[in-house]
Amino acid sequence: MIQSEEQKKKEKQHKKEKKTAQERLDELLDSGSWTEYQQFTAGSEQDKSYPNDGVIIGVGTIHGVKVCVYAQDFTVAGGSLGKIHAQKIAWIMDLAYDMNAPIIGLNDSGGARIQEGIEALSGYGSIFYRNATYSGVIPQISLIVGPCAGGAVYSPALTDFIFMVEKTSQMFITGPKVVQAVTGSASCPEELGGAAMHATISGNAHVISQTEEQLFQQVRALICAWKTVQTSDVIAPNVKQMDYLLPDDSKKGYDSKKVICGIVDVDSFYEIHEKFARNIVVGFAKLNGEPIGIIATNPKVKAGCIDVDASDKAARFVRFCDAFGHPLLVLEDVSGFMPGVDQEQAGLIRHGAKIIYAFATATVPRITVVTRKAYGGAFVALNSKAIGADFVFAWPASEISVIGPEGASSIIYAKEIHESANPEQTKKEKMDAYRKQYASIYKAAEVGLIDDIISPSETRERLIQSFALVVNKKRSLPGRKHGNIPL
Ligand code: HXC
């Protein structure tokens, strides 16, 4: 049987474990919900032979939520972007803005259509312009389901969330061949721009999956995470076990995801950036059916210290939640910002400042729970009352102080420790004394830095009650063109 050219291209796509644009839409969207627009487009003046000009645009639903979608079709000129192709994407983005609906872009493209020359470049510009203009107005989600190279990467980079598939999707500014030509060193595409690299090292990818099918399920779950659930459908976690969750040894790490799951509705936690900067955990969840955003330091990784990557991760998440009205819950067990030459030289001051800026300017309801310790600048930065938290609670064994006991005793008791016959023993005694005198949670409660001391098992109920109190909170920032977040 003679295969058509179109059929051959479809097969080539399937052999690479990639789906066609239409197959992808069928999996991403609710069955029967798709309406396509401008399907008779066929390329620009120079070349009229490209069906749909290599991109499908339209409107569908995900779990009943209206979404606008564009899907680049690699079987048509490698999904390359020409003038009409760009015009279609810009049009569907404008429609998403007018509809106040999320825009989802499926990127599978060889980049600017070479035959169309610089007009294709200008097409990218028109998309970037809309990515930036609609930022914080409509959620923007990018699925990288094939190549995304050169300047084309800046459209996904300007969106809120990037999803990638392991082994079949790549993002890089400069591809392996050009890297080799310019620098003389070979690099493998996965190392240069694969999903695993972007999920763990660069932080460009927020969610990755092993297959396209899984990816579409994850996108559907994200849209679902932003929806309210009826309280009659809520399954509450077993809160009793929360009182036994923390290790007896206060220096031992534990996984803050266990704390999150002991507070929020069962199976509602949706983690963002799971493999990147694991010393802080961020994600969406539901509390008694209401969607919230969670930021939790993670004592299991780097003792939960905040470093450059953790700062970027947390600050960006806070900005998304604030822009789209998701109340914020901070779970805090943090000994401070990460000390050391590496971090200082990497700009921890500038990056850490993003967290303060993001929280201080967030006007959504926001609550902090100190679960074990909160020392120094990290206590202030992570949604303290001083920078506008609505409520700050602490678990009974928590410590809050200007600096951790170890650092404090090495400064204020340095002389006694140095002159002692048994410096180790003296240091331990001084640390205990410091804990009692300066770091006790009751000291913080006495001066109103925290609003109440609550048990782990009552945390869920107190949070549900407290968020309900501030659900209609009205705060606004001083009028200005825009602030200048430390970038
Ligand atoms: C026109 C293109 C194209 C492009 C691919 N095709 N990229 N046509 N412009 N940019 C066409 C091919 O000619 C081929 O057409 C079909 O798409 C499939 O491509 P293949 O090469 O056969 O596929 P594959 O082997 O899978 O390789 C995919 C690829 C490779 C890795 C993406 O095609 C590639 O390297 N393309 C060029 C990538 C690139 O350098 N882009 C940068 C452009 S500049 P037929 O008819 O044979 O099926 C740019 C700047 C943007 O993007 C700046 C924004 C500000």
UniProtKB/TrEMBL annotation:
InterPro entries given in the database record: AccD/PCCB, AcCoA_carboxyl_beta, ClpP/crotonase-like_dom_sf, COA_CT_C, COA_CT_N
Region (Disordered): 1-25
Keyword Zinc found: no
Residue ranges constituting the CoA carboxyltransferase C-terminal domain according to the UniProt record: 237-469
Keywords for this protein: Ligase
Keyword Transport carried by entry: no
EC number per UniProt: 6.-.-.-
Domain CoA carboxyltransferase N-terminal: 1-238
Catalytic class of the enzyme: ligase
Full protein name: Acyl-CoA carboxylase subunit beta
Organism: Alkalicoccobacillus gibsonii
